[in-house]
Amino acid sequence: MGASLGNALGYNRETLSMSVQDTTAKRVVADLVMAILAVNGWTIDRVYSLREGLKAETLLSLKDLSRSSIQEIANKLNVAGYTRGEYMCALLAHRLKALTISFDSQFERELLNALKARRIEDVEKFLVAIHGVGPSVVRSFKVLAGL
Length: 147
Hints:
By secondary structure, the protein is mainly alpha-helical.
């Protein structure tokens, strides 16, 4: 991925220092959650700066997201510092909940295999199959994943 696209997305390599070789499910979920939240004027850097708060509120865990209601997820987003107002937090909470529905063991295995093999077109295909994930989220995810 070229630096110009990363810069256009608000990505700063010094701030986001995670290894691009880490394709574990936990890392992929965290990257995907942050990419989903980096929309409508919020850059990857801005969302990444909330990473510890998102983690503390268990928003980077599929297991915990799946156990939470939409309202609980929206509340956790606010507590984590993702203060976008009631409408946006509810909208993004719906998208995060959709992620938990899509990310079953087969989806996880196929996505991880595509990431490890760096099959970018396959990665894009898997991601856009998730409700609420479009080109902007895919671009942000690719930056975070080092693709």
